[in-house]
Amino acid sequence: MKRRFLIILTVPLLACLALLTVLLPGLPSAEEIVSARPPASSLLLDRHGELLYRFYDEQDRIPVDLSEVPEHLVQAILAVEDHDFYTHPGFSLSGMARALRNNMRGGGVLEGGSTITQQLVKNRVLSTEKTLLRKARELVLALRLEWRLSKAEILELYLNQVAFGGAAYGVEAAALSYFDKHVGELTLSESAFLAGLLRAPSRYGPFRTGSTEYLYRKRLVLGRLLAEGWIDQGEYTAALHEPLRFAERRVTLRAPHFSLYVRDLLTQRFGEPLLDTGGLRIRTTLNLQLQEDVQAIVSNGVAEMFRHWVGNGAALVTAPGTGEILAMVGSVNYFDAGKDGEVNVTLALRQPGSTIKPLTYAMALEDGKTALSIYTDEPIELEVPDEGAYTPRNIDYEFDGEITLRQALARSRNIPAVNQLVEIGVPRFIAKAETLGIHSWRDQNPYRYALTLGSGEVRMLDLAQLFSTFPNLGYPAAPDPILEVFDRDGARIYARECVSSTAGCKGEQAFAPGVAFLINDILSDSRAREETLGQALDLRIPGHQVAVKTGTTDLLRDNWAIGYTTDRLAAVWIGNNDGSPMRYLHSGQLGASTIWNRIMRRLLLTKPEHRFQVPPDIVRLPVCSTGTDRSCSDCQPREEYFLRGTESAAQCGALAAGDNETSEAG
């Protein structure tokens, strides 16, 4: 009798041991299940945390804390997926019995009866094959997980794991994909819809032509919530009749030219696998509200100039002291493929026209010239080896005779600029430009004097770096769109510390502060440019001293305006991507300057009156107001700025810098 009892007791024990030897080998621990993180999308954010773009490979997943998920979404999912979740030990006997009954009726393994814990295990570490062995291993792992983790921890893992159809995995990605809102913003109606998707996302999705099954599933979920007592009759009725407003079926891509430009930079820095699956949080320098405003200004401005054969426009706004890119508009409409809208003109090579002349005259000032140095604006002919004679001309085909450096730059006369480049030398000019961010002029003909007139192509982004040298009083700052990057655990793995430091992000000194200041003062001198450009109202910002330079290329293929204050810089281009000409534009009155003026007014709307700082290496001296006559004996004197050491150019005595107001731009 005793022996028979032992045999009866031993048989099931041996059977259990045999079963465990089949199930346990190779099974991960609970810690391994938790650490086996699925791919997570990386988020590209503006400087204030607004979402611009999600980077992912096959699964768009954005992990969130359970505290961020609304209670009605949790309850809706539990109501249809596992209403005994908080009471079962990881498996449900009633669910398993129901599944076994249905499988026997169907003649195969058709239903699993899985709890949320089992679903989590299956999706995280097991295959999706429908076999009894896999089901048994799933049960063992579910027990392990329930023993190791709290219900809240299991639920959080599940909500970030589960598939909602398409590329959307997890509740945050689902909320963004279907409703373009964060999970915490979902209504009860929307939560019921998402919960109803889980059983079969491809079947119950809302985008199948003519399908309304998702409404049936929503009603079913709401009914379960009502039956469980998690909502009342009033909430049920309101949610049932609340219409679902789905987001457009396209990838969320805000500030598209900027976002894709930053993606390229991030790929180079971190690699594509980490970017697409590592769950990074990238905070950029972009101000999304400003970006949208600038996009509207560019698009509307180009539309207004349609009759002038203007087909496209681009703009860039930076903080010149740090290089932060605040707005980047690469075209009128990124999504207009018929007009090559996806081309980012801020990164394209285009001829800059006369916007490059400030570099020429900055080098002249560096070599000892002054704002009163005399240039002869008369016809010239230069011999270029292997090319023959080069005969530059002014845009109006007229000549001004003797003019000062201030007048030559302010009026954008071509012949004085060419003469000055001859004196500087093209190789030295190219070398200087390269230190300021222009890297597209290498291997140029050493006699290409038209470089000073903008014949050498540049990128708007690089031109902005060159121009940053002037408000920074001699120090260029390279544009940089990234503030900081965090990994999926919240640890900061990159930060551009110079943005918040007192040192700033400026590069090596390229010009003396006084040289940069003189360029600022000349480019903001409305009176000096009046003779050629007239009132040029587009170049004036009332109440502010703003420096600005325009540029136009041959046959009106490109038209530019780039200007700045001490802490804001805006560059604008208009033209056509294919290089076809525009017509009837006038620098300072109609063209890129019109768009630039609107952008600058937007930037300075709430700013106090701006004036450029006068550095210590500048002195101000009375000179003759006629310009070329330095004597003050027979004319009304005015004040002119000089670098210390070049005061001999004036003959009316000296005043200390800062005694009077600087020249005014508006």
Automatic annotation (TrEMBL):
One of its GO terms (biological process) is proteolysis. It catalyses: [GlcNAc-(1->4)-Mur2Ac(oyl-L-Ala-gamma-D-Glu-L-Lys-D-Ala-D-Ala)](n)-di-trans,octa-cis-undecaprenyl diphosphate + beta-D-GlcNAc-(1->4)-Mur2Ac(oyl-L-Ala-gamma-D-Glu-L-Lys-D-Ala-D-Ala)-di-trans,octa-cis-undecaprenyl diphosphate = [GlcNAc-(1->4)-Mur2Ac(oyl-L-Ala-gamma-D-Glu-L-Lys-D-Ala-D-Ala)](n+1)-di-trans,octa-cis-undecaprenyl diphosphate + di-trans,octa-cis-undecaprenyl diphosphate + H(+); Preferential cleavage: (Ac)2-L-Lys-D-Ala-|-D-Ala. Also transpeptidation of peptidyl-alanyl moieties that are N-acyl substituents of D-alanine. Pathway: Cell wall biogenesis; peptidoglycan biosynthesis. It is found in: Cell membrane. One of its GO terms (cellular component) is outer membrane-bounded periplasmic space. The keyword Transmembrane helix does not apply. Keywords: Carboxypeptidase, Cell membrane, Cell shape, Cell wall biogenesis/degradation, Glycosyltransferase, Hydrolase, Membrane, Multifunctional enzyme, Peptidoglycan synthesis, Protease, Transferase. Pfam families: Transgly, Transpeptidase. Residues 49-224 form the Glycosyl transferase family domain. GO terms for molecular function: penicillin binding; peptidoglycan glycosyltransferase activity; serine-type D-Ala-D-Ala carboxypeptidase activity. Residues 313-569 form the Penicillin-binding protein transpeptidase domain. Its main location: membrane. In the C-terminal section; belongs to the transpeptidase family. In the N-terminal section; belongs to the glycosyltransferase 51 family. This is Penicillin-binding protein. It comes from Mangrovimicrobium sediminis. The lineage of its organism: Bacteria, Pseudomonadati, Pseudomonadota, Gammaproteobacteria, Cellvibrionales.
